[in-house]
């Protein structure tokens, strides 16, 4: 792509160099009217040739400028798509870290982990990143990718965040997590025992203090294990698992 841009700049430069020739052509036209008839015929042919060359250079300039504009647009679009892909890859990496932290710390006999990596259709329909089912409660896990210093304002719709000397505004993740937990409670048909956790990267810092329903990736398992009071039987947990896994297909049929 860089070579094409250099070629186009060369063509534009050649066209610009042709501008003095056009001025010289005008001088030649003024000189033509004061010359003899035979000399006028010869010089008229030279002037017409010069005019044709100037027209060709003008057309080349236009084509080159259009092509350069197209290349610049293509380059900008490529860089934008590359940034989006990088952001998506980083978000997927954080979600995978959350799943690994849960899978390595929670006992498979008591905890069933349904991750978006394993069941994308089902959890996409619920708009959650992970669901942990256990006799001690149902946990809706929402992953937030925001790093840096996060000013927690639980009553506000946005949280100011400072990262890499830039200020960002994060929509209050607790509000969205509570709504998704309410949706899952309706799917499971249970009025209690459904909680939500918003998980941030390990390099995130909270100001003035960490909210109760937020944690970091390395803390997510401990945040779930602190609930030890049994609320559901193992049979209910299996029913909940079937309800979550079948919700995606049911929702797809309704939207079709």
Structure description:
α1 runs antiparallel to α3 (37-105). Helix content is 59%, strand content 18%. Mean pLDDT is 80; it is low at 15-26. The chain is of the alpha/beta class and 256 residues long. A five-stranded mixed β-sheet has the order 1-2-3-7-9. A four-stranded mixed β-sheet has the order 6-5-4-8, with no helix packed on it. The chain starts with a helix and ends with a helix. It is built from seven helices and nine strands. The chain has a domain at 80-255. Residues 90-207 form the NERD domain. It holds the Pfam family NERD. This is NERD domain-containing protein. The chain crosses the membrane at residues 59-80.
SSE order in H/E notation?
A: HHHEHEEEEEHEEEHH
Global shape: elongated
Low-confidence stretches: 15-26
User: How many helix segments?
Assistant: 7
Strand order of the largest sheet: 1-2-3-7-9
Mean pLDDT: 80
Backbone structural class: alpha/beta
What characterizes the major β-sheet? 5 strands, mixed
Beta-strand content:
15-25%
Helix content: 55-70%
Question: What is the count of β-strands?
Answer: 9
First and last CA, distance:
43 Å
- Rounded radius of gyration (Å): 34 Å
What is this structure, in a nutshell?
The protein is 59% helix and 18% strand. With 256 residues, it is α/β, with parallel strands linked by helices.
